[in-house]
Design goal:
heterodimer, B: mainly alpha, MetI-like fold
C-alpha cells in the first residue's frame, strides 16, 4: 500500500536498510493477504469447513435442534447402504443423469451443426433456445406442471395425433421420472448448443478445405473431421452436464416433489428431505458426503483424462 | 469457412436452407412455447383454463388475474426481499472477486499459485454438502430469517475471481508498471486502472451473478421460515403448496412476476451473456 516513492527515499536516507526488495516483498505479501482475505475467509467458513463438519456429523444421530448429538459410529453408513429408498434414489439419479446428458448432447450437437453457418435470424434462434438457462427454475417447473397436466395440458395436444391417451405424468410411478428428464433437457439444450457452437468455431477451416479436396461427403466430414476435433467440447459438456444432473433439485422438488412413492426422487432432494423435513441431520450429512465424494472422483478423473486423451 | 463452401457447392438435403430454418423454427417453438403458454394461461378465465383442445388466446383477456395473483401472497414484500438480497449479494461478490482477482493477477507473492489452486479446488465442491453445516453456523449466529443469512454464505467468488483475473492479466503490464512508478497504491491501481479497463467483462459478470442470485431457490428456502423474509422463488413455490387456493391462471400470473426482471435483463444482455459463456466460462 505504501507508494514506491517513499521506499526510494528510505533507501537513500537510511543506508542501514540492506535489501529494499525484501521490504517490498513483505509489503506485497501483506497487501496480497488483505486483498484475498474476504474471499478466503468466506470460502473457509462456508465451503471448505462444511466438508469436515459433514464428515463429523455423519457419525452422529442428531435432530439439529437438541443441544446434544449422539455418537453412533458407522450406523448412518450402514443404514444408508441397507436403505431401499437410498438405492432407488441412487438408481433414479443415475438414470436421470445419463438420459439427460446423452439426449441433451445429441440434440444440442445436431442443433449446433445445423446452426453453424451464415444464417438470417441466427442470433434470434440462439437467444430463444438459450433462454431457459437463465430462467428461474421454480417458475419453469410450475409452467411444466401445467403443460404436463393430463386433461388440459398443452403436451396432450401434441401427443393426441399419435393416438396416445392422456398421460398423468406427475402422478404416475412410471412417467414422473421421464417428465423430469424432459424438463431438464428443455432447460439445458441451449447451454450445450452455445458451447458446441463455440467449439465448432475453433475447428480450423483448412481441414474442411482439405476434406473438400479429398472429396469427402458430409457424413464422412462429420465423422472424420468435426466429431474428433470437437472431442474436448463433448468431453467437457459430458462431465459438467453429468455433475450438474447429479445435483438437480429445483425442478424436481417443484415438478414432482420426488413422488409418487419416490419414483422421481433424486439424491439432493432425498438429502433435503432428510435434513430439513425429517431432521435426520446425521443421515443427511452422510448422503451429502457421498455426493461430495462422487463428484470429487468424477472431477479428478476428468482432470486426468482431459490431459491424456483430449487433444486441443 | 467450411459452411460457405458447403452451402455453395453441395446444396444437398443435408444442408438445404429450408431444412435448416424448419429445424430451427421447430426447436425455437419448442423452447418458446412454454413461455407463451404461461402468458396465455395467465389471462384466461377459469372455464377457458379447463378446456380441451386448449384455447390459444382468450377472446377477452382477463388482465385482472394479475391483480388477484398479486394479492394472493405478499408479492410486494417478496420483490423487496429478492431485490435487496440479489443486489447486495452482487455488490459484495463483485467487490470480493475484484480484490482477490487483482491480488492473483498483479501482486507479487511467493505462494500465489498455491493459493490460486486452493481457491480453484473450491469449484469442485458441490454446494449441497454445505447446506447442513451452513444452516448450523447461521443458526448459531442467529442469522436465520435475515438478509445477512441469505446473502453472506454465497458471496465468496471463485468463478468471478477467475474471470476477472484472466482479464486483468490480459491488460498490458506496462500500465500497471506505470501506476507503480507513479506511486499509486495497489488499491488505487485496482480502482482507477484495472477495474475501468475491465468494464465490459465486469458488466457481464454483474448480470450473470444477479440472475443466479435472483433464481436461487434452495438456500433461501432453507434459511427463511417466516413468510415476510422469503424471496420470490420461495414465495412462489409456497403459493403453490396449497397455502392459498388459487387457480392455474393465477399461478401462471405469479410465475410471470418472478420471471419479468430476469427476462428483461436477459433480453437486453443475451448477446453478451452468451458470448461470455461461449468464451469458456464454466457454469457453476
Amino acid at each position: 500500500m505504501v507508494p514506491l516513492q517513499r521506499s526510494k527515499t528510505n533507501r537513500e536516507n537510511t543506508k542501514v536498510q540492506k535489501n529494499p526488495l525484501t521490504r517490498r516483498a513483505k509489503r506485497d505479501a501483506l497487501t496480497f493477504a488483505i486483498f484475498t482475505f474476504p474471499n478466503f475467509l468466506l470460502l473457509a467458513v462456508f465451503v471448505f469447513w462444511p466438508i469436515f463438519y459433514s464428515f463429523y456429523l455423519s457419525f452422529f444421530r442428531w435432530d439439529m435442534i437438541s443441544p446434544t448429538k449422539r455418537f453412533i459410529g458407522f450406523e448412518n453408513y450402514r443404514v444408508m447402504f441397507s436403505d431401499p429408498v437410498f438405492w432407488l434414489v441412487t438408481k433414479n439419479t443415475l438414470i436421470l443423469s445419463v438420459c439427460v446428458v446423452v439426449l441433451k448432447l445429441f440434440i444440442a450437437l445436431s442443433l449446433a451443426l445445423v446452426m453453424n453457418r451464415d444464417l438470417k435470424g441466427r442470433s434470434f434462434y440462439q437467444a430463444i433456445i438459450f433462454s431457459p438457462t437463465f430462467t428461474t427454475s421454480v417458475a419453469v417447473a410450475m409452467v411444466w406442471r401445467w403443460i404436463l397436466e393430463p386433461d388440459y395440458g398443452l403436451l396432450r395436444v401434441f401427443l393426441r395425433p399419435f393416438g396416445l391417451r392422456p398421460i398423468n405424468w406427475i402422478e404416475s410411478t412410471t412417467h414422473s421420472l421421464p417428465a423430469v428428464i424432459i424438463v431438464l433437457i428443455w432447460v439445458g439444450i441451449g447451454y450445450d448448443m452455445v458451447i458446441f457452437l463455440a467449439g465448432l468455431k475453433n475447428i480450423p477451416t483448412e481441414l474442411y478445405d482439405a476434406g473438400l479436396v479429398d472429396g469427402v461427403n458430409p457424413l464422412q466430414e462429420f465423422l472424420y473431421i468435426t466429431f474428433p476435433l470437437l472431442s474436448p467440447t463433448t468431453f467437457f459438456l459430458t462431465i459438467t452436464g453429468f455433475i450438474s444432473a447429479l445435483k438437480a433439485f429445483d425442478i424436481i422438488t417443484i415438478l414432482t416433489g420426488g413422488g409418487p412413492l419416490n419414483t422421481s426422487n433424486v439424491l439432493v432432494h432425498f438429502l433435503y428431505e432428510n435434513a430439513f423435513r425429517w431432521f435426520k441431520t446425521g443421515y443427511a450429512s452422510t448422503l451429502a458426503l457421498l455426493l461430495f465424494v462422487v463428484i470429487m472422483a468424477i472431477t479428478l478423473v476428468q482432470n486426468r483424462l482431459s490431459k491424456r486423451w483430449v487433444h486441443y | 469457412m467450411a459452411r460457405l463452401v458447403f452451402g455453395k457447392k453441395k446444396p444437398s438435403w443435408f444442408i438445404g436452407r429450408t431444412f435448416v430454418h424448419l429445424t430451427l423454427i421447430t426447436f425455437t417453438l419448442a423452447i418458446g412455447l412454454p413461455f407463451f403458454w404461461m402468458l396465455t394461461t395467465s389471462i384466461k378465465n377459469p372455464v377457458e383454463v379447463a378446456t380441451f383442445p386448449p384455447i390459444w388466446w382468450p377472446k377477452s383477456p382477463k388482465w385482472d388475474n394479475f391483480a388477484k395473483a398479486w394479492s394472493a401472497a405478499p408479492f410486494g414484500r417478496f420483490y423487496i426481499n429478492s431485490f435487496v438480497t440479489a443486489i447486495t449479494g452482487v455488490l459484495l461478490e463483485v467487490s470480493i472477486a475484484s480484490l482477490s482477482a487483482y491480488a492473483f493477477a498483479c501482486i507479487r507473492f511467493k505462494y500465489r499459485d498455491f493459493f490460486f489452486l486452493v481457491m480453484l479446488a473450491a469449484l469442485m465442491i458441490p454446494s449441497q454438502i454445505a447446506l447442513i453445516p451452513n444452516y448450523v453456523i447461521l443458526s448459531r449466529l442467529r442469522w436465520i430469517n435475515t438478509y445477512r443469512g441469505i446473502v453472506i454464505p454465497y458471496v465468496s467468488s471463485v468463478f468471478g475471481t477467475f474471470l476477472l483475473r484472466q482479464y486483468f492479466l490480459s491488460v498490458p503490464s506496462s500500465l500497471y508498471e506505470a501506476a507503480e512508478i507513479d506511486g499509486l497504491s495497489h488499491f488505487k491501481t485496482l480502482l482507477y486502472i484495472a477495474l475501468p479497463l475491465a468494464k465490459p467483462v465486469l458488466g457481464t459478470l454483474v448480470l450473470y451473478i444477479f440472475i443466479g442470485k435472483w433464481n436461487n431457490y434452495l438456500w433461501p428456502l432453507i434459511v427463511t421460515t417466516r413468510q415476510r423474509m422469503r424471496t420470490l422463488p420461495v414465495g412462489l413455490a409456497m403459493v403453490r403448496d396449497a397455502e392459498y387456493a388459487i387457480g392455474p391462471e393465477h399461478l401462471m400470473a405469479a410465475a410471470i412476476f418472478v420471471l419479468v426482471p430476469v427476462l428483461i435483463v436477459y433480453f437486453f444482455s443475451q448477446r453478451k451473456l452468451i458470448e461470455a459463456i461461449a468464451a469458456g466460462a464454466v457454469k457453476g
